[in-house]
């Protein structure tokens, strides 16, 4: 198994910073002003510049928007950048640990239960998905964690019949403002992570004219295979360019990964990568979220539900907290050697395709 994978946030950060130091990369660090890691360690967003900062073309790689998923994105950054021969005229910027609190504490959200990947939005703006969130909240987030209370299939089927699959999946996973202790909570203002990147990224991309980016996640898709979620408008030059780089097979992986809901994709709000192009309006952009698939959507959602219960659950559980944590992590960062090998291989190939595509662009 690759030594680019880490067991703790502190280990992952040390590996990332070590490679940056070895390669004389410039590192910009924003340390969290109040929170510490699970071992008492410093928490920080680290941004390393590995190429020519004055180059017109930039490849941007992001890990750790959702905490537990940071281990995979971090491994890809470390493995890719360790010995990469960076082409002339290319800048490579790697953002390590967008949500360092969640990365360290093994949580999807930050210390305020804000889903950082729903926080890049207008706060307090309701939508029709919020109308059906209260019954979803009661079904998805029970006080007791038993085999009976965690079965939400009845509510899922009822709401799907009443509102349709798209509205259901959007309410369940697309971001909500109703319940601060619920999943996919948007927050009432900018998270610490958002404040940091709002300040730093416009300066880092000020000279760029063409930017390709990948934000790494885990969950959706076949086991160890990639699911591609484009952030460019369908049919736009940036959208078509990415699939020229990756191949046409990548076009259908997102809907395939939503097979539990008949391929219906959610209407997300507040995604970091959807907001990202606003930091450098002078540049052309081509980028996407890429997920390394683990299990089906419902199983992955069960992992996210466990994460939420470990923070807010008040009742009894048929599993110990340690068993629940292990089950949660398996859904989002499997220990299986075949998953880790395949996910790393596929992720590295995607990063290389983007780098080569950026050179031709």
| CATH architectural arrangement of the domain at 9-127 and 192-296 and 334-360 | 3-Layer(aba) Sandwich
Strand composition percent: 15-25%
CATH topology (fold) name of the domain at 9-127 and 192-296 and 334-360: Aminopeptidase
Cα Rg: 19 Å
Write a concise keyword list for the protein shown above.
14 helices; Aminopeptidase; seven-stranded mixed beta sheet; 7 strands; single chain; alpha/beta; 361 residues
Could you walk me through the main structural features you see in this protein, from its secondary elements to its overall organization?
By secondary structure, this protein is α/β, with parallel strands linked by helices. It has a domain at 9-127 and 192-296 and 334-360: Aminopeptidase (3-Layer(aba) Sandwich), CATH 3.40.630. Helices cover 41% and strands 16% of the residues. It has a 7-stranded mixed beta sheet, with helices on both faces. β3 (57-62), α2 and β4 form a beta-alpha-beta unit. It is globular. The two termini are 34 Å apart. 47% of the residues are buried. The mean pLDDT is 94.
Short description:
This protein is of the alpha/beta class and 361 residues long. It has helices spanning 9-22, 70-82, 100-105, 128-131, 133-140, 153-163, 165-173, 192-204, 237-246, 253-257, 272-275, 297-312, 321-332, 337-360, and strands at 26-36, 42-49, 57-62, 90-96, 210-219, 226-230, 284-293.
């Amino acid at each position: 198994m690759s030594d680019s994978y880490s067991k703790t946030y502190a280990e992952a950060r040390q590996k990332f910073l070590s490679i940056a130091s070895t390669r004389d990369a410039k590192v910009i660090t924003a340390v969290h002003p109040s929170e510490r890691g699970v071992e008492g360690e410093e928490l920080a967003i680290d941004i390393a510049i590995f190429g020519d900062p004055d180059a017109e073309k930039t490849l941007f790689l992001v890990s750790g928007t959702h905490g537990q998923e940071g281990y995979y994105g971090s491994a890809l950054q470390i493995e890719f950048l360790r010995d990469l021969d960076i082409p002339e005229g290319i800048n490579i910027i790697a953002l390590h640990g967008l949500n360092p609190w969640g990365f360290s504490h093994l949580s999807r959200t930050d210390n305020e239960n804000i889903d950082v990947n729903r926080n890049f939005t207008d706060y307090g703006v309701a939508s029709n998905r919020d109308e059906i969130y209260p019954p979803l909240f009661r079904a998805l987030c029970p006080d007791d964690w038993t085999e009976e209370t965690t079965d939400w299939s009845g509510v899922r089927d009822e709401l799907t019949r009443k509102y349709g699959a798209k509205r259901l999946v959007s309410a369940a996973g697309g971001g909500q403002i109703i319940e601060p202790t619920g999943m996919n909570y948007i927050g009432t203002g900018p998270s610490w992570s958002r404040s940091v990147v709002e300040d730093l990224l416009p300066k880092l991309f000020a000279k760029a004219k063409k930017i390709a980016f990948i934000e790494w996640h885990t969950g959706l898709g076949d086991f160890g295979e990639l699911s591609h979620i484009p952030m460019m408008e369908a049919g736009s030059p940036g959208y078509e360019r990415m699939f020229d780089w990756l191949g046409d097979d990548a076009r259908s992986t997102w809907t395939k990964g939503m097979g539990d809901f008949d391929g219906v994709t959610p209407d997300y709000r507040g995604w970091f990568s959807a907001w990202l192009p606003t930091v450098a309006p002078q540049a052309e952009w081509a980028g996407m979220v890429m997920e390394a698939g683990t299990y089906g959507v419902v199983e992955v959602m069960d992992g996210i539900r466990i994460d939420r219960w470990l923070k807010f659950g008040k009742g009894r559980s048929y599993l110990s907290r340690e068993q629940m944590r292990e089950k949660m992590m398996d859904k989002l960062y499997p220990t299986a050697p075949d998953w880790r090998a395949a996910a790393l291989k596929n992720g590295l190939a995607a990063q290389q395709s983007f780098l080569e595509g950026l050179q031709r662009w």
